[in-house]
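Why do we bother with a discrete structure alphabet at all? Because it lets us treat a fold like text: something you can write down, compare, and reason about line by line. To make this less abstract, here is a complete entry for CTHRC1 C-terminal domain-containing protein. Read it the way you would read a sentence in a foreign language you are learning: slowly, and without expecting to understand everything at once.
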Amino acid sequence: MYCFVISHSVGGSCVSGPQGLPGVPGNNGLPGNNGLNGRDGAKGDRGEQGPPGEKGETGSPGTATRPRVKQCFWNNLDDPADSGKIVDCQFNKTSSTTALRLTWNGVLRYTGSSGGCARWFFTINGEECGNPAPVDGVVYTPGVNIHRVSTIDGLCYNLPAGLLTVAFNVGKCDSYGVGDANTGFNSYSRVILEELDMVD
């Protein structure tokens, strides 16, 4: 609206003018600063327990997880042999990386007209143990006829898996002649074989 004055009149009057053109749009304002982080919300309620999972597959059994032991025994062997095999016992070894423990328990005797000795020893498939050493024992007497309970015990390494024939044998000692040996007089004799894990 604008006003103008008419001459020689006491008062003036105002008349509305035409509408002006729209103004030019203003520029965008500057971005505002980020607001402060809001507080953590309250802890929610515990959800319901989910359904049980599917049953897992059955695991494969481990090797040599429990001792494998076999005992062979004989009553009153009373074997007078001075050399050769006395008894044997077969064992099925499951692994080539395990050790085999060889144990004899029974009566041994050696006698003669003068001092001498006899040697008892184990063989595996016809060969004495080579790793770490033979498993053997000797009896030496100066001609006295005494029967004694004896134990011969040791470990043998690097034996193959599979069926093994373990024999208990008698023979002469080094540097001594053959005398009168006796094995297993009037009692039970036993060979115990046990497969064991190796330990570094």
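What the structure line is telling us, in plain words: The chain has a mean pLDDT of 85. The first strand starts at residue 2 and ends at 4.
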